[in-house]
Amino acid sequence: MADFKINIVADLESLKDKVSAARAAEKIRISLCMGNGCLAAGAGEVYDALKESLEKHGVATKSDLFDEGVKDNINYTHTGCQGMCQHGPLLQIDPENNSDKGITYMKVTVDDVDEIVEKTIMNGEVIERLLHKDANGVSYKNYKDIPFYQLQTFVTMKDCGRINPHDIREYIGIGGYLGLANALKSTPADVIKTMTDSGLKGRGGGGFPTGVKWNFCAKETAPKKYVVCNGDEGDPGAFMDDAIMDGSPQSILEGMRIAGFAIGADEGWIYVRAEYPHAVKSLGKAIEEAREYGLLGDNILGSGMKFDIHIKEGAGAFVCGEETALLASIEGKRGMPRPKPPFPAHSGLFGKPTIINNVETFANVPKIMLLGADVFKQNGVEGSYGTKTFSITGDIVNSGLIEVPMGTKMSDIVYKIGGGVLNNAKLKAVQVGGPSGGCVPADKADVSMDYDSVKAVGAIVGSGGLVVMSETACMVDVAKYFMTFTQSESCGKCTMCREGTKRMLEILTKICDGRGEDGDIETLEELAKAVSDGSLCALGKTAPNPVLSTLRYFRSEYEAHIYDKKCPAGKCTAFKKYHIIPDKCKGCSACARKCPVGAISGELKKPFVIDSEKCIKCGVCAATCKFGAIEF
Amino acid sequence: MSGTIIINNQPVAFDKEKSLLEVITNAGIDLHTLCYNKQLAPFGACRMCIVENEKGMLMTACTTAPADGMNIKTHTPRVNRIRKMALELVLGNHPSECQTCDKSGHCRLQDAANAYGVDKIRFKKPEKDPKVDNLGPSLIRDNNKCVLCGNCVRVCEEIQGVKAINFAGRGSNSKIACAFDVPLSESTCINCGQCLAVCPTGAITPLDQTWKVKEAIADENKLVVFQFAPSVRAALTEEYGIENAPKAMAKATTALKMMGVDYVFDTNWSADLTIWEEATEFLGRVAKGERLPLFTSCCPAWIKYCEEFYPEFLNNLSTCKSPQGMLSAYVKKYLADDLNLDLGDKKIFMVSVMPCTAKKYEASRKQLVTKDGEPETDVVLTSQEIIKLFREYGFNLADLAETPMDNPLSQHTGGGVIFGVSGGVAEAVVRYAFNDGAVVEACRGTQELKEIDLDYKGIPVKVAIVNGMDNAGKLLDAIKSGEKEYTIIEVMCCRGGCIGGGGQPVPNEMAQRELRKDTIYDADYLAALKNPADNPDVKAIYERHLGEPNSHAAHEILHTSYEPRDKVTGQWSKD
Question: Do B124 and A506 make contact, defined as CB atoms within 8 angstroms?
Answer without folding.
Answer: yes
